[in-house]
Amino acid sequence: MSQILSKVTISPEKTLRDALELINSQALQVALVTDHDKHLLGVITDGDIRRGLLNNLSLDALVTEVMNRNPRTASPSTSKKKLLQLMQQHSILSIPLVKDHILVGLETLKSAQQQTNHANPVLIMAGGFGTRLKPLTDKCPKPMLKVGNKPILEIALFNFIQAGFSNFYISTHYMPEQIKEHFGDGSQWNVKISYLHEETPLGTGGAVGLLPTDIPQLPAIVMNGDILTKVDFQLLLKFHEDNDADATMCVREYDYQIPYGVISGSGNRITDMVEKPVQRFFVNAGIYVINQDIIKSVSANTYIDMPTLLEQKIADKGEVLMFPLHEYWLDIGRMDDFKQAQVDICAFGLER
Q: Do 287 and 214 meet the contact criterion of CB atoms below 8 Å apart?
């Protein structure tokens, strides 16, 4: 158990007096009741003790008399943003983090409100022609098309900024001057933006070979510039690091319903019939985390797609993981997608 947890945990044999002393001695304003195996039994606040005293309990009563036996808890993998929302929604100052019924952490309102800054490079690929969105892209690169009143690329950039990222690279090819003119060096958002220009299209992975050699030696997030999403980038990065991955690909579940009855058989004997079954697959969501050794393996101005790059790592016995997305996600590849984005922009809170 961490040092912080050891200061706020108390056994069920202790009294209200003991709990009050613990709460008053710490700044976390809570006592967590655990058994000898570190199972969380309940939570006690100053208010719980006061209510107990008003109900004629003495300070020598056991903590089990007043503790909240069904406190609001969360998984240790829950993002700070979600934890902050929960605490604000339920007007509580802290949330115990529990895994398999074992107390493993405590998130407080104060710590959740503190912005975590990430030095990791973020590469947004914005060089595509957007052919399927013609005529909208005849005079405008696809990432600069407006959803609501902001370009797609600006919405994506701001989501990263909100998550604490500030070191950005944007790869360009088609009409790069429009992108550079709008975003500049990023100073208007207090971030740094550099540009990687593809003289010829380099595929979905080739732009990583244009990244400078002096970037921070940390995992980089790479994302297609035509994606709208509410994915928690902090949680994605934490997943990648906690699992010692070489690369992590975000994936979406895709359902496909076969429009016919599917027949299984043995020889000419029917063994099973399923009417219009639904098959489920994981598909590439166009968001990746890759380690520096993968970046360094791509030579400048080399055409390669990101799946091919990851397949090479898999062939080298690398740890390539997938991160399923359950949050909002939309790849704006076709006109119908672009129209859907105009509907979703307010419904899903995509715009600041």
A: no
Q: Which domains, ranges and CATH numbers included, belong to the chain?
A: 3-113 (3.10.580.10), 122-347 (3.90.550.10)
Residues contacting 56, CB < 8 A, separation 6+: none
Residues 6+ apart with CB under 8 A from 31: 8, 9, 10, 19, 22, 23, 43, 44, 45, 63
Q: Give the tokens for residue 176.
A: 């790069």
What digits encode the pLDDT tens for the residues 319-347?
999 998 888 999 999 999 999 999 988 77
* Interval 155-172: pLDDT, tens: 999 999 988 999 999 999
Q: Taking CA 198 as the corner, what is the angle to CA 121 and CA 191, rounded to the nearest 5 degrees? A: 30
How far apart CA 104 and CA 45 sit, in angstroms, is 19
Cβ neighbours for 187, distance < 8 A, ≥ 6 positions apart: none
Flag whether pLDDT at 352 surpasses 80: no
H helix or E strand, kind and range, residue 345: helix 335-347
Query: What is the bridge-based pairing of β-strands 278-290 and 220-224?
Result: antiparallel
